[in-house]
Amino acid sequence: MSVRLPPIAALRALEAAARHLSYTRAADELHITQSAVSHQIRHLEQLWGVKLFARRGRRLLLTENGQALVPVVRNFFEQLTTTLKAFQSDEDSGALRVSLLQSFAVKWLVPRLGSFNTDHPGIDVWISTSEELVDLEAGEADLAIRLGHGNYPGLQVTPMLTEYVFPVCSPNFLERFGEPAEPADLLGYPLLYRHSQDICPRWRDWFRDAGVEVKSLPKGSRFPETSMAIQAAMDGQGIALARSAHVGHDLAAQRLVKLFNVYSRSSVAYYIVCPQRTEHRARIDAFRQWLLEQAAVAQVEYDRVAGHIEKAVASG
Description:
about 325 residues, alpha/beta, Arc Repressor Mutant, subunit A, D-Maltodextrin-Binding Protein, domain 2, 2 domains, two-stranded antiparallel ribbon, 10 helices
């Protein structure tokens, strides 16, 4: 035997009226009219074929059927509320899954992550790295940091960081091959490349900004990851084209040396991306705000150094 289920609004009217034993007070609580409450109750009585309320003088009382049904309705709302609150609690706490490129994770994010863990001990950040774009809507990650042009339809996109591109090598490499006197000299050195050049630093772009006409680039090793090319440069295998965010610590530790005062602004940038329906969840918002704070500090330094160098080149 099938039972016709009523709308939620009618069940809310029944529960409120039974609790107050008054259509007027139920209407005030639900912000509707008394006649609307009366209409919802009549709808339930007609739907189920039972009498739910009876009047004794001016008093409103539940019938036996009403007394049997109201606890069921009340339990339904309580269980629904408890379950939904549990969902919300799970969404706003616990692990936060973050997807990004391995090179950016290793060279920029991970060294800074300790400060987020200190400020937000209740949020565990789980890092996953991939060259492929994960499906955020399908729940493959909660948030992503993407390198590109910011065109990610259907997602919440927040600009994060823009870099500069410049050549680097190891001090040992310079001892073995000698220091180049001008940018054009790099065409005679072993250069390091990435397999894909779609959104990566390109040597032709840097040479163009350095005022060097390039007919053909020298041969050199190619790597699937920018971090591998940087590591190869630190090992003295050649000269890599690096991004600001990837080599700051290595330059400071003198594991790498920057060649020439020529900085090319990257044609792509980093963006924080998440589904629009989840952008205001507490843990996502906390991590996004922290990322933006960290990126703002880094951006000032990148712009300061590049701006200083560009002025020096222009004045020289």
